[in-house]
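We emphasize that the prediction below concerns an isolated chain of 345 residues; any contacts that depend on oligomerization or on bound cofactors are therefore not represented. The input was used exactly as deposited, without trimming of termini.
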Amino acid sequence: MSARTYLEPLGLLHGPTAAAAIAAGCALPLGEEAAFTAGRVLRRDGEAVEERILPAAALLESADPAMAGRLARLARPAGPVRIMGVVNVTPDSFSDGGRWFGRDAAIAHGLALAAAGAAILDVGGESTRPGAEPVPPAEEIERIVEVVRALSGHGCTVSVDTRNASTMAAALDAGATIVNDVTALRHDPAAMAVVAEGGCPVVLMHSQGEPRTMQADPRYQRACLDVFDHLEERIAACAAHGIGTERIILDPGIGFGKRAGHSLDVLQHLAMLRTLGCDLLVGVSRKSLIAHVAGDRNLAPTERVPGSLAAALAGVGRGASIIRVHDVAETRQALALARAVDVAA
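Result of the prediction step, given as a token string:
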């Protein structure tokens, strides 16, 4: 691999403080409501990674011909911060153990999440937890299609969480308007065409391996950079099929083929992904990373809500605009308070 250079915005500011810093010439825009005062420039050549931290002004004066493009993509307005509520129509979800597996239960749960503040409902019929077995697309469709139809019929924005093209197509026909693929359209050769022809937004998630084996022995040279490279390649693959960056949402795939250290490295440097010019989605809700960081591996998923809220705030603070969660009301409250503090600053 030839040497590559990356840019991570640092010293992030929000609200009126961000606008004032930009006006004073000491910060650069990160979307419409945030700014950054410095940047970490990383240069990777083989296994060696060099890092420098430069003030905003020095970034503008950089001789690197690619820097102007990165800064322009960072300034691109992102979508509003939205909560994506999880609707698992599966008998073996790690987070709820099949509590919403029945069709009526799933519909009622989705409507409750929407009432609690979820702007998007992510409906899935195949568990992708570590060690999960695959579900045939026909069975996956049977599980979710009427749930999607009912929720969209109630005016909800529905995304379909699937890696199978036939399931994507069935869900879009039933009223879904977003495709969320944990394999970034790599699993099913027909998936790219379904999304391209459907004209819908698509979530491209980074993952390593498949659910059954992804946590067996994941390896990276440098997790945050490897994830960046992979997602950049998937953006290019989408572009070749007519899917532009305005339709792409990037998800770094916390916990998908990643040890705790890998996931933390990706989260810490999340803002780097904004230089790819797409909106960001982060999903850490109730994941085992929280139990690992808390020092209690026995924490049940429902006991990981405080860590889930902290991860949500950290994600939004680093440029994410969609937070995928199980605990919608709690997340909405935490985000509302964080925004109130920013607006008052």
